[in-house]
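Inputs:
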Amino acid sequence: MEREEALEKIAAARALIREVARETDSPLVAQCMRFAEQNLHWAQWNLGEFTSLAPELEGSQPTSVP
Amino acid sequence: MATQPYYTPRAASSPYWNPYLETLPRAQLDALQLTKVQALVRHAYEHSAFYRRRFDEAGLHPDDIRTLDDYKRKVPLTDKSDFIRYQDERPPYGDTGAVPEEYVGHHCETSGTTGSPLRIPLTPYDTERYGEGWCYGWWGLGIRPHDSFYFAFNWGLFAGFWSAYWGLRRFGAKLLSGGGQNSEGHVRLMQRLRPTVLVSTPTYALHLAEVARELGIEPASIGVKFTYHAGEPGPNAVPAMRRQLEESWGARAGELLGLGEQHAFAPGCPTGEGVHVDESAMFAWVRDPQSGEEVPEGEVGENILTSFTNNAQPLLNYRTHDLVRPYRSCACGRTWTFFRGVVLGRTDFMVTVRGTNVYQSAVENVLGGIAGLSHHYELVLTREKGLDQMAVRAEPAPDYPADAYATLAAAAARAIREALKVRLDVILLPPGTLPRYELKTKRIVDQRPREVRYALER
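Outputs:
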């Protein structure tokens, strides 16, 4: 599979996973989605597609500088 | 089974773990590095009081970093002592952390042999990224996920060992843990479990081979196909070490260069002549310790690292104190920065003897090639009349005749003089005299006054 096609499919998969993560009532499933999304971010990163630095902090409010 | 069934034939036959990024042309790689560096600078500035203060003091804002040269020149250098000081002031991570503590999934530490240990917070995702550094070297050497790995170490708080485990999880191979064993226990467990890969420090792999022979077990009969090393100069740094390892185990030896607080950052090149910076996860440049300028390709300077795998405690323009010789291309086809000879020495242990820079690795290479010498040796640094001096203390091989020690010492001194153009005293000690180490072998004994050296040890 060519890189561009792979990136397109990975981005679509991330969107689906985020949707499940937002809506699920199962901590287990939420955790599965978290790991899955991080792995897909890592696949994008390693195909040279920069989307963000730290997806584990997205959707949260990390500590700001006092 | 040749390899895991989920690989396409093209992936299975790839010489690279990550073909796209490992061979990306330099201009594209640099453009990508700039994007990552800019994001990291912003992350550090916004979430770490330490970096906010450092940047403000330097009159610097993340928007000022428009090129990689801007980054190298404008972002203040950081050092291990900075982090230890702030961590000690306000444990556990002081102002240096950049995520709330509840985001830290794994806490590691350096050994702290010279004082307080450096605490290393990592998010769960940091550990995944960190582990990946090992996979490049394993795959490049020919190790595959169907191999079985024996880890001849205990984990404790040491990031280097844990990172090998994180890497193995990503790689998909089988782990045979040697945790809790002494040397004889390792040998017997390996003989029973038949791993195909041994992971340890290089000197400990040689020690295990000695122990196996003492037990009447020929190490090569165990069936290890690869030995893989980190923690101290290994087969890609010291060719003599490669020969000893490969002859002892009947296996192919590889090496990774890592730095606990940063990353498993430079997997071994399959050419066996050095390591490549993992430019997926790192940005590295090499600085002349005197002028502060970047050294040209092929010149020796200090490795300055920036990690994208440690977002919990960002490490920007971090001084490693390691002297390296960088190249931009390599016969293996990787475009990632290549350090020929791995680490040549330490800036804090750099000695100039009678006008000649003497690198630790160069001396080790000569010693490793002298028949009759064992791999147990240390380099003693002293200061006499304002000048650095270096002497070698070494043990002959156990079966070497004691009445020939003087001849062997003279031969070693002559070999050093011919190879390095410098005269060093060589003192031979009876076998078993020098200390043995299971973690990192201490090769340098620095007896110079504190004011003329830096006491920073890993």
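Remarks. Chain A has one domain: 3-50. Residues 3-50 of chain A form one domain.
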